[in-house]
Design a protein that fits this description.
The complex is a heterodimer of chains A (411) and B (369).
Chain A lengths: L1 H17 L2 E7 L6 H14 L3 E7 L6 H12 L6 E5 L2 H8 L8 H6 L2 H4 L2 H7 E2 L2 E2 L2 E2 L1 E4 L2 E4 L1 H7 L7 H13 L6 E2 L3 H26 L7 H14 L11 H9 L5 E3 L3 H9 L9 E4 L6 E5 L1 E4 L7 H12 L1 H11 L2 E2 L11 H12 L1 E4 L9 H17 L2 H15 L4
Parallel strand pairs in A: 1-2, 1-3, 9-10, 12-15
Antiparallel strand pairs in A: 3-13, 4-5, 6-13, 7-12, 7-14, 8-10, 8-11
Helix pairs in contact in A: 2-15, 10-11, 11-18, 17-18
Chain B lengths: L1 H32 L7 H4 L12 H8 L4 H33 L5 H9 L6 H11 L28 E6 L3 H23 L2 H20 L12 E5 L2 H26 L2 H9 L4 H29 L3 H7 L9 H11 L3 H32 L1
Antiparallel strand pairs in B: 1-2
Helix pairs in contact in B: 1-14, 4-9, 4-11, 5-9, 6-9, 6-12, 7-8, 9-11, 11-14, 13-14
Classes of the chains: A alpha/beta (411), B mainly alpha (369).
Amino acid sequence: MRKWLLAMGVVLGLSALAQTGKLEIFSWWAGDEGPALEALIRLYKQKYPNVEVINATVTGGAGVNAKAVLKTRMLGGDPPDSFQVHAGMELIGTWVVANRMEDLTGLFRQEGWLQAFPKGLIDLISYKGGIWSVPVNIHRSNVMWYIPAKLREWGVNPPRTWAEFLSICQTLKGKGLQAPLALGENWTQQHLWESVALALLGPDGWSNLWNGKLKFTDPKAVAVWETFGKVLDCANKDAAGLSWQQAVDRVVAGQAAFNIMGDWAAGYMATTLKLRPGTDFAWAPSPGTSGVFMMLSDSFGLPKGAKNRQNALNWLRLVGSKEGQDVFNPLKGSIAARLDSDPAKYNAYGQAAMRDWKSNRIVGSLVHGAVAPESFMSQFGTVMEIFLQGRNPQAAANAAQAIADQVGLGR
Amino acid sequence: MRDRITAFLVLLPSLVAVAIFVYGFIGQNLWVSLTDWGKNPAQALALRPELRFVGLDNYRELFTGFVDMRFRQSAVNLIFFTLFFMAGSLGLGLLLAIALDRGPRGEGFFRTVFLFPMALSFVVTGTIWRWLLQPQGGVNVLPTLFGLPPLAFPWLTTRQQALVFDWNLLPFYTALVVGLVLLYVAWRAHREGERGRRFWSLLSGGVLLLWAFTLGRSTQLLPYPEPHGFSLALVGVILAAVWQMSGYTMALYLAGLRGIPVEVLEAAKVDGASEWQTYRHVILPLLAPITLSAMIVLGHIALKIFDLIFAMAGLDYAPTDVPAIYMYLLAFRGNQFAKGAAIGILLLLLVAVVVIPYLASQLRKEVRR
């Protein structure tokens, strides 16, 4: 009997000890987003107490600095065990085509994730028959933010199309509001562009732009730049000097009526500015995009040659689980990528976004890495500069198409 | 003999290190800039990327390709930034030095105050000046302290350009400038009586100018006109850079001024030179070597500028772009490693143009001694 117990003890001990060693996670989540990652790591340590987790973060919004560091590490043959990457073409166009990632289809089958995640999302992270990363959160790009009390004061309603927006813009300018739309530095201008483009092209046209079926020089796509130019005339002239938070501040202070920004703005207003979602500030899909959810997602993948592969796989299991996503997302201010997460853990904005996530048509964001490879995305800033310099829709469209041809977009 | 072997052995480690880590990597960079690394995404970040030799394609694209318009603007920005930054720092530094040289009260205090900005890093300077140059605050509200209306210049956020020219005229302007410099060299040689040098510089300068005015004007780099000019958004950046570095030139000039022998100045006074004449004909010529070294130091700082603009305007703002920033964007965001390497080589050549004549003249002087 005692021998049996001893043997049992040894076996149990071994299975707990089985997961030892290290796990290095590479991300750009520091500062405001740090606590969410730490909560996830704590959960991992509860499950695998013998694994030493190395939290390698490189600060810088949207990973601007982290991606450069990651590239040098990968080129030097020193991949981290798992790294954060925007789900979609940013991962596929850079790492999957270069044959540096492991196919995770097996893991998705094993964990039943093919049903747990919406199909639109699975399509975005699939390429050549494989699934390449585990999405941990979802943000929405096409959201318009406003202060209901201010709109009542001015006597206007949130616009539902861009034409309506432009007429409201004139009304507000007549009432002495110089810049009805608050806008920030370069990337927030691209962010505005993708909302305008989605509205004018529709979800199908938007997707066709990225698979090469619709050319940037098509009259429909050129028209996007024309409308975009008119929308810019409603925005503040000092945009280039403002961060996205400062642009949101303008709306909160009543210097502007609307701001188009991803739903991290909800986190900023609710947590940092202590405003109540739904009453102090409110939101609507950006004009003309009702019923469409333009998503971006952070995900984790498994690079080939990871030193602690088994630990990394366990990390991915946790990241994709209901438990892991519901620990991470309320702190991060995003919603879970899974369809079965618990609404009670999220605030009013999060609950509304979760309803839309389940019912809306899902498309991917350009600026945040879902639909176009980095080689296109990084040069899209140049296209934007060409447009801002000359305000010539055709020139911008030509440049965009030239870059698309150069990088082989859609091939 | 023994000494020689010891000397060689002592020098060997640093020779090997420099050979590998400086010249080896420059060589590798040159090789990468002649390949297609980054064109094919499947190879860009592969574990062992296969690189194909493409000759000077990357360079050609940078100067004449449709999508690299941003590189050309950044190159123009860099030239203007370097010129104005050097002129500003030298001019302001000289003025401060002359003022302090006259020994006002609290000279030591002011010397420290003016020199202090140099101790800061460009990132700190950039952040402070970004705040000061916000269109609705800082520098622009300064006049209201004296009851004047606030300034309306939008500083970093402006998209205006001055001195706009067509990129297609670049060969013409380049030939014009180089030709004029060569004519100046010929004139100097003429005064110094060096006939050989006079002949060759006159000949090459003349040929260049002739080419500029005949064929140069009709050379087409691009099939369409492409205007580039001095972005006024750079004015703020130049202001910050001058603020930071003029203390340094002040210190150099001050040392120079203190080093001028009193006898010389007194001799000038005895000869009846006015104050202005003393500066013009005695002091400034004696400061010329200092100006030259200051220009070299400032010039290579200006050509390598990255951090100041990174902190003031970020990477994505084309009006304040410089090649170093565009290189970073192309290589590390766009995965276009070969093109990034090509920009790196171009920057190296630019710095070499500034530094090598200086080093050559220094070496010649040492040999003469």
